[in-house]
Design brief:
9 helices, alpha/beta, 20% strand, 38% helix, globular, single chain, Nucleotidyltransferase, domain 5
Length: 336
């Protein structure tokens, strides 16, 4: 980078039920600075116990202009100051993705600035760049409602998938256990709060996949065990505390095993589940250098997409054409 003035990157994420717009400044030395991060979290889905895709798309259409205005106001800039635009193209709900993707393309075309179609999981990984400089190689554990993936980040923009859930994502399991215990939705915060009142040894859960040779995860067995414990009369607080304890133990054990075998000292832990206080404490007490996203950057947001766009510019990756479409399934791994 030789430009003295920072490049202001706009990031947009509408992959699921959060409308996120963020602004990141890419400085001449490569430093990335979050200038704004505004999110509209949809509440219309609460009564359904999960996200309704059509309703999510409509909410994005109705809210994206206002969220954009709020982000510009927070950063103290105007639309004319934007030097590049990044928007999530996948994975996610196609109808929801299209709202942000088309909004970003139109803005980039109107301003005559580069456009970057960002991968949602890459955004989650680079959310941690708001807190610390990330120097590859390192591991990245993305844990959310839809994803549980463990990547070996070989260099900026090069990802090798080394492990993933074989069934439910971690966040999905949290949601389902919270729902069966009557703790509310979304399940992550509900489990975390209820666990404070419970006994983490109150329900005897067995950690999954103890004998495996690889680095995969599994949560469906824990979900079934939680259902049986609930039917047997376990309290919601004990169920939450015990489930949370074993789920975190499972995530940490597999990640530590991969780090040891691959020779990695740093692990980025990101995604909605990474906001869990107990998980942060467990990884923080391990021998790993655990890096978490800053406040407001764990769940889906626009700043993480702007950070991914800034990383693409910093590493010299070419901008995308305006013809790229939204994709429901998009693997991040690009190295065998």
């Amino acid at each position: 980078m030789t430009t003295a003035e920072p490049i202001l990157i706009l990031g947009i994420d509408t992959s699921c039920d959060d409308t996120g717009v963020g602004l990141v400044a890419l400085h001449s030395g490569g430093r990335m600075e979050v200038r704004a991060n505004r999110i509209w979290s949809q509440t219309v889905h609460a009564s359904y116990g999960g996200v309704m895709p059509e309703l999510a798309s409509r909410e994005h259409v109705e809210r994206i202009d206002a969220v954009m205005d709020d982000a510009l106001l927070e950063a103290g800039v105007s639309v004319a100051d934007i030097g590049a635009v990044a928007a999530t193209s996948g994975p996610g709900l196609v109808g929801a993705l299209l709202v942000g993707l088309m909004y970003g393309k139109g803005l980039a075309q109107g301003l005559g600035v580069p456009f970057y179609a960002a991968h949602h999981l890459e955004g989650h990984i680079y959310a941690a760049a708001s807190e610390a400089e990330l120097r590859a190689p390192y591991l990245a554990l993305v844990v959310s409602g839809g994803h549980t993936h463990l990547f070996d980040v070989l260099s900026e923009g090069e990802y090798r998938l080394v492990g993933a859930t074989r069934d439910d994502a971690a966040g999905e399991a949290f949601d389902k256990v919270a729902r069966l215990a009557g703790l509310g939705y979304p399940g992550g915060p509900a489990i975390s709060e209820a666990a404070k009142r419970g006994d983490p040894t109150g329900v005897a859960f067995r950690e999954p996949m103890l004998g495996q040779s690889g680095y995969d995860f599994s949560f469906s067995g824990l979900k079934t065990a939680a259902l049986l414990a609930h039917r047997a009369g376990a309290s919601g607080a004990d169920l939450a505390a015990s489930f949370q304890a074993v789920a975190i133990k499972h995530l940490l054990r597999v990640t530590r095993k991969a780090a040891e075998h691959l020779g990695r000292e740093t692990v980025v832990v990101s995604g909605g589940v990474a906001a869990n206080t107990a998980l942060r404490e467990a990884f923080g007490k391990s021998e790993l250098r655990a890096v978490f996203p800053g406040q407001g950057l764990n769940t889906d947001n626009g700043a993480m997409i702007a950070l991914a766009g800034a990383a693409a510019i910093r590493s010299g990756r070419a901008a995308h054409g305006l013809g790229d479409g939204a994709v429901a399934y998009a693997p991040l791994a690009n190295v065998e």
